[in-house]
Amino acid sequence: MTRSRRTSTLRVAALFVFLAVGVAPRTVRAWTPPAPTADEFDWVRLASDEWLKGEIKAMYEDSLEFDSEELDLLTLDWSDIKELRSATILDVRAKGRRRATGRVVLEKRRLRVGNATEMAFSQDEIISITAGTPREINYWSAKVSAGGTIREGNTQQTEASAQAKLQRRTVTDRIRMDYLGNYARTAAQETANNHRAHGTWDRFATDRFFLRPIFSEYFRDAFQNVSHRLTAGLGAGYQLIDTAQTEWEVAAGPAYQMIWFEDVGPGEDAMENNPAIVAAMVFRHELTRSIDFAYDYRLMLTSERAGRYNHHMVSGLAIELTDRLDLDLTLIWDRTASPQREDDGSLPRRNDWRYMVGVGWNF
Fold first, then answer.
1. What is the mean pLDDT of residues 120-126?
2. Which is it for strands 42-46 and 51-60: parallel, antiparallel or unpaired?
3. Closest Cα partner for 231 from 269, 276, 200?
4. CA 272 → CA 96, 155, 232, 253, 266, distances in Å?
5. Distance between CA 272 and CA 128 in Å, rounded?
6. Cα(165)–Cα(264) distance, rounded to whole angstroms?
7. Which one of 37, 73, 94, 306 has the lowest number of neighbouring Cβ atoms within 10 Å?
8. Cross-strand pairs, 327
9. Residues 111, 77 contacting (CB under 8 angstroms)
10. CA angle (106, 107, 108) in 5-degree steps
11. DSSP state, 78?
12. What is the pLDDT of residues 303-350, one digit of tens each?
C-alpha cells in the first residue's frame, strides 16, 4: 500500500471515530433542585417530572394548594405529586391518629417529617398538611353557594336559594354543619319558604369507624305544614370507601323529635313528640379533575302523625370554574309518606322536588 493510500485510509478511520464519539448516547442526569433551607423555597415535582418553586399553603381532601413564583396559586391533585421538599415547617396529620410537625420530604410515595424524632408515612395515609405550627383556622373548611332569579314586567317573580357547608376536621374528630334554604314569590304571593339546618359531631375510633355522640336538625316548611321540627340523636357510622377519588360512608342511630304543625284540624294537638330512627349516607366521587359528584341521603322513621317516614336527598355536580369558584347544579327531593292535613282538610303533597343552579365559593 502506498503512503498516500495509507494516509487516506487513516483519515477516513479518524472521521468515523469522530462521528461515533459525537453521536454516542450520553447519560443524562435528572435535574434536582437544591436542598431547601429555612429562608428559601418549597419545591414540588409533578408526575410529568416538572419542578415547581414556591410555597406550600395546605393539603386537604387530596388537593395540594401551592403558591408558585410564576404561576400564582395552584390547586394540584395529591396523587400527582411525585416529590416534595419543604423549606418551611409543616403540620402533617395522617390516618391512625398520627401527627408530626417539621420540614417534609416526599420521595417514592413515602413522606418523611424531620423533627427531633423523624416520622415517616405512606403518601396515601396523609389526611392534611398545613403550613406552620398547628392553628385552629387550619382545621376548618367551608363552602357557600347561592343562586337567584328576579323577573319584572308581565311576570313578577323572585326566587332565591342558598347552601352552606362548614366542617372542622382533626385526626380524631369531625364536625359538620349544613344549611339549605329556598324562597320564592310570584306577584304578591309567597310560593316557597323552607329552611333546613343540620349538624353532626363524629369521633373516630379507628380510621374508618366513628361514633356520633350527637346529631341535630332544624327544619321548617309551611307548605309541607311544618312550622318547626327539631330532631336530635346519636349513633355510629363507617367509611366504606375513603380514597382520593371516592368517599362513601353510612351512619345510623336513634333520635327524638318534636314537631309543630302550621295548621291542624279542630281539636287536634298542634305539637307532636316522638322517638325516631335516623339513617344517613354520604357519597362523593371525582368524575374528572374539574367535576365532582355528590349524593347525600337522610332517612327518618317516626310516628304516623309526624309523617311515618320522610327522607331528604341532595344530589348534584360541582363544576370547577376557578380554584375557589364552582358552578353548582343541585337536585333536591323531600318526601313525607304521611303528611299532616291542614285545618281546611287539604293534604300537602308527599313529594317536593327542587332544582338549584348557583355559584359556590370554597374556603
1. 89
2. antiparallel
3. 276
4. 43, 40, 15, 20, 15
5. 44
6. 34
7. 37
8. 319, 359
9. no
10. 130
11. G
12. 888 888 889 999 999 999 987 899 999 999 999 888 887 777 777 888
Grid coordinates given for 171: 385526626
Separation CA 167–CA 139 (nearest Å): 8
Please state the rounded mean pLDDT for residues 81-105.
Answer: 87
The amino acid that residue 361 corresponds to is W
Residue 175 pLDDT greater than 90, yes or no: yes
Confidence grade of residue 278 (pLDDT, cut at 50, 70, 90): very high
Return all residues near 325 (Cβ < 8 A) that are at least 6 apart: 359, 360, 361, 362
Determine whether 204 is exposed, middle or buried from the number of CB atoms within 10 Å of its CB (0-12, 13-18, 19+): buried
For cell 403558591, what's the residue?
67
CA distance 101 to 253: 37
Buried b (16+ CB within 10 A) or exposed e, 37-73: eeeebbbbbeeeeeebebbbbbbbbbbbbbeeeeeee
- Where does residue 168 rank: exposed (0-12), middle (13-18), buried (19+ CB within 10 A)? middle
pLDDT at 110: 92
H-helix or E-strand spanning residue 122: strand 119-122
DSSP class of residue 41 equals -
Q: pTM for the whole thing?
A: 0.72
pLDDT digits (tens, 9 = 90+) for 192-207: 889 999 999 999 888 7
* pLDDT of 339: 83
Distance, in Å, from the CA atom of 314 to the CA atom of 332, rounded to the nearest integer, reads 5
